[in-house]
Request: fold
Amino acid sequence: MFTGIVEELGEVTAVENLGDASRFRLRGPVVTEGARHGDSIAVNGVCLTVVEHEGDEFTADVMAETLDRSSLGALAVGSRVNLERPMALGARLGGHIVQGHVDATGTVLERKLSENWEIVKISLPADITRYVVEKGSITVDGISLTVVDAGPDYFTVSLIPTTLELTTLGRKQPGDPVNLEVDVIAKYVERLLGERGTAK
Reply:
């Protein structure tokens, strides 16, 4: 379980094609501190398992399903990535409940500069539109954000300078893909109400 509060901006240092999977080596001094084999680290919002750890780098295997359903398949050596370790019990929940399970990918459509912040417009796939509401939470590339405007096929978020500086969203341009994870509470509510409606 994660919170969507990115701990550091890491970097892909190697990509190995394994046929039906890929092995990524990533650099992240903060998230690798005390890391062990089998630990989880969120990479651009995708929960990955540490295979090896040496110095300030770790490797993670990514199966074809994850490569197909997320933007990780577009990563290359030198790509910057958002990194976060799992939330510790008893710690503050600074963002919202994030599972690290990507629901869909969107595309950055537009960026609008303001004096003290920036508005980013992102495409919203039809199958997750119902989970995105104005002032609700959404995870974009592993970043917990508040929805400013929820349109029929897009949503917007407002980014403060800190988010622009310390995450990949400061570098994403129109046309770039992003990983999206909707608020899991909305999915549970939908399922429970659906079952309630069919109960006899």
Notes: The radius of gyration is 17 Å.
